[in-house]
Design brief:
Blueprint (H helix, E strand, L loop, with lengths): L1 H6 L9 H19 L7 H4 L6 H12 L3 H8 L8 H4 L15 H17 L5 H15 L4 H10 L17 H27 L14 H7 L6 H31 L8 H4 L6 H15 L5
Helix pairs in contact: 2-5, 7-8, 7-10, 7-14, 8-12, 9-10, 9-11
Length: 293
C-alpha cells in the first residue's frame, strides 16, 4: 500500500519514525525484487480495500515498471517521493484482474471470531487456547496459522494490537479489528500453500512483511526440522517451559490426527451449506455477546 501511495505521487510520511520506515522499507524491498527480476504478488493486502483494489493493483504494476534506482533513492533517504514525470496520470493497464476473495479468508474469519469470543469469556487464558484448538480440530477447520496466532494471542506475553478494539462499545469497530487479524492469518495460509506447492516448479515464494507476529509464525509453517523447533519455541517462549511443553504435545497430537474420521471436516462434505453458515452464525453470536468489565 505504501508503494501504491508513492505511485500516486504522494510523499513519504514523516509523522513518526515508524511511518517513515514503512515507506522506505517498502521502497527498498521493491527495488530489491526488481533487481532480482522477481514478480511481486500484492493482491492480499490490496483486497483489504475491496472498493479500490483493482485501481490500486494497476497502480502497483505501474510502480513495478519504474526503474529500481528511483525506489533505491527513497529507501536510502535521498528522496521522499517519485519524480512527477514518473507518476503523472496515464492510462492504467486493466488487463490484469484482481483475484477473488480466497476461500481461506472466510475460514479464517470464523476462526478469528471464535478466538475473539473465547477471549471475552471469564475463563483463564490457557483454557481459552485449549478450547480454541480443540474446536478448530474437532468441529471446524485445522489451520496452523490460526492456532499459532492464538497461541501467541492468549499467552501472558501477547503482542500488542493483534486484535484491535475487541471490547469497543460499537461492535462494528470490534468486528473491523477482527477482520484485520483475518488478513494476517490468510496471508500466512496462502503463502504457506504456495510455498509447499513450489518444489519442482522452479518457483520460490518469499513472504515480505514487517509484522513481527506474521514473520514469527511464517517460520513455523515450512516443513523442515527447523520449523518444528520454531513451532515448539513459540509455545515455550510465550507460555513458559511447563505450559509450553503441554501445549506443544496437544498441538502435535492433533496435527497427527487430521485424517481422524470423527472430525466434522472428514464427515461433512465441503459442498455442504453448513460451512458457509458457521462464519455467519459466529458473527451473529459475537455481535450479541455480552462484554464483561
Amino acid at each position: 500500500t505504501r508503494i501504491v501511495s508513492l505511485a500516486r505521487g504522494e510523499t513519504v510520511s514523516r509523522k513518526t519514525k515508524e511511518a517513515e520506515d514503512a515507506y522506505r522499507i517498502a521502497a527498498g524491498a521493491l527495488a530489491f525484487f526488481q533487481c532480482c527480476n522477481a514478480l511481486v504478488e500484492p493482491c492480499m493486502p490490496l483486497l483489504e480495500k475491496a472498493s479500490v483494489a483493482s485501481e490500486e493493483l494497476q497502480l502497483f504494476r505501474k510502480a513495478d515498471n519504474i526503474p529500481p534506482q528511483h525506489f533505491t533513492d527513497i529507501a536510502l533517504g535521498k528522496s521522499d517521493r517519485l519524480e512527477p514525470n514518473l507518476t503523472k496520470k496515464s492510462e492504467l493497464d486493466e488487463t490484469e484482474k484482481l483475484s477473488e476473495l480466497p476461500m481461506w479468508w472466510t475460514i479464517n474469519y470464523a476462526l478469528a471470531l471464535k478466538l475473539a469470543m473465547l477471549e471475552l469469556e471469564s475463563i483463564n487464558q490457557r483454557t481459552k487456547l485449549e478450547r480454541f484448538i480443540e474446536w478448530s480440530h474437532k468441529d471446524y477447520v485445522w489451520s496452523a496459522s490460526a492456532v499459532l496466532f492464538a497461541t501467541i494471542y492468549f499467552s501472558p506475553k501477547r503482542k500488542y494490537g493483534m486484535l484491535k478494539r475487541l471490547r469497543a462499545k460499537d461492535r462494528g469497530i470490534a468486528l473491523k479489528g477482527i477482520k484485520n487479524a483475518v488478513w494476517d492469518m490468510t496471508l500466512l495460509t496462502m503463502w504457506s500453500g504456495k510455498y509447499h506447492s513450489a518444489p519442482g516448479s522452479k518457483v520460490i515464494w518469499f513472504l515480505c512483511s514487517r509484522d513481527k507476529v506474521v514473520k514469527m509464525i511464517a517460520g513455523s509453517l515450512v516443513s523442515t526440522e527447523a520449523s518444528v523447533e520454531k513451532t515448539n519455541k513459540i509455545s515455550i517462549d510465550y507460555w513458559g517451559k511447563h505450559d509450553g511443553d503441554a501445549l506443544n504435545k496437544q498441538y502435535w497430537q492433533l496435527t497427527a490426527k487430521l485424517e481422524d474420521p470423527t472430525r466434522r471436516k472428514m464427515r461433512v462434505p465441503t459442498s455442504d451449506p453448513i460451512w458457509s453458515q458457521i462464519p455467519q452464525e459466529l458473527e451473529r453470536e459475537f455481535l450479541h455477546q455480552v462484554i464483561e468489565a
